[in-house]
Design goal:
Strand content: 15-25%
Distance between the termini: 66 Å
Largest sheet: 4 strands, antiparallel
Order of helices and strands: EEEHEEHHHHEEHHEHEEEH
Strand order of the largest sheet: 8-11-10-9
Length: 365
């Protein structure tokens, strides 16, 4: 027992990465240390509702930081410990929805220690998906099919990104936040050329895409191997220009590069610019029913004939937008004479867009 603790509110300290919750005359203490014990091989197949012995070398980080907020913890005994596995995903968001390639198999998992907080809404929308085939609100960020296959088959990407999600669980995430884990996984032939010109890259689905150019800086914004935030015996990068450029953007005001990006925008408007869209998804849709398929999938008129391109939405059964992309009618197949269409989808959603297209075609028969 801790005398007087009864009137203490529940506390979440984002700077110390710990939480303290009132339990009678005592406290439940925990947090998110930078060096969690990870399970890359997963848990045993028959493991359910089980616990592990607490690793005090790992948990000491949380005890020490909780004691900074409530010093009485240093003189208080420990009543009990609870240590169980928790699932974290590479982008710190759950996995919800029907699995592509296994129709009728729905997932609701990977809640990143937010299961109780997210259970109500996630459960409701998962039920909507099962019953009606569609969520009632935009659930793209949680879609189980959002990851590109190049990412999900790369164990290092999954491990590094999931560790970073855990280590930053209590971090303040700004709108332009970028991951430092597993960079340069997918690059195009122009990557090094653009980097030499000061390009500050962003990663989408494992692909490095141009963000903006630090052309007024002598420092090269190159990405370095993941330093695990100094955990597991790794030295945290002392000098890291790319990280420094990113942190300048983490603000609720105007970042230092605001004028630089403004100059790039003005150049596009007043002169000319070439955009590198290599990270976009590209699909070919062909066959005897290709025209009928795109007519059914797209809400815009795509009957433009060979050489025509249309920007269009694809809708769901409720009339809501599933994606927006471009559809180009290219030359017929020289062997069969059948129609062919080239579809360019946003890099951040390309795999999920492909899943939508294939599922609609499958449902239509």
């Amino acid at each position: 027992n801790i005398p007087g603790v009864e009137n203490m509110p529940n506390v979440r300290d984002h700077d110390l990465s710990v939480y303290l919750r009132l339990q009678g005359n005592g406290l439940s203490c925990g947090g998110y240390e930078p060096h969690p014990d990870m399970l890359p091989e997963g848990v045993a197949r028959d493991f359910a509702f089980g616990l592990y012995e607490l690793d005090w070398d790992t948990f000491a980080f949380n005890v020490e930081h909780c004691a900074i907020r409530v010093p009485a913890i240093n003189e208080t005994g420990i009543k009990s410990t609870v240590c169980g596995p928790e699932s974290f995903t590479p982008d710190h968001k759950p996995l919800l929805g029907e699995s592509y390639g296994c129709r009728g198999f729905y997932q609701g998992c990977g809640f990143n220690s937010s299961g109780i907080m997210l259970a109500g809404g996630s459960g409701r929308e998962l039920a909507n998906m099962v019953v009606t085939g569609q969520a009632s609100i935009d659930m793209f960020g949680y879609d189980v099919n959002r990851y590109h296959p190049d990412c999900t088959k790369d164990d290092a990407w999954i491990l590094e990104r999931s560790h970073e999600a855990y280590a930053k669980n209590y971090a303040m995430i700004f709108i332009h936040d970028e991951n430092l884990a597993k960079r340069d996984m997918r690059t195009d032939p122009l990557h090094d050329t653009l980097l030499s010109k000061g390009c500050v890259f962003q990663q989408r689905q494992g692909f490095e895409r141009p963000g903006w150019f630090a052309s007024n800086s002598a420092l090269l914004p190159d990405k370095k191997p993941y330093d695990w935030y100094g955990a597991y015996g790794n030295d945290k990068h002392a000098e890291y220009p790319y990280r420094d450029f990113l942190e300048e953007d983490y603000t609720f005001g105007y970042p230092r590069q605001f004028d630089q990006i403004g100059a790039e925008s003005a150049a596009c408007r007043e002169r000319a610019a070439l955009f590198n869209m290599s990270y976009f998804g590209k699909f070919f849709l062909s066959g005897p029913d290709a025209q009928a398929a795109v007519d059914y999938l797209c809400c815009s008129n795509v009957r433009k004939g060979p050489g025509g391109t249309i920007y269009t939405n694809m809708l769901n059964k409720q009339g809501g937008s599933e994606t927006d992309l471009t559809v180009s009618h290219i030359e017929p197949c020289p062997l069969t004479g059948q129609d062919r269409f080239y579809i360019a989808a946003g890099g951040g959603s390309s795999h999920r867009d492909m899943c939508h297209i294939m599922n609609v075609i499958d449902d239509k028969g």
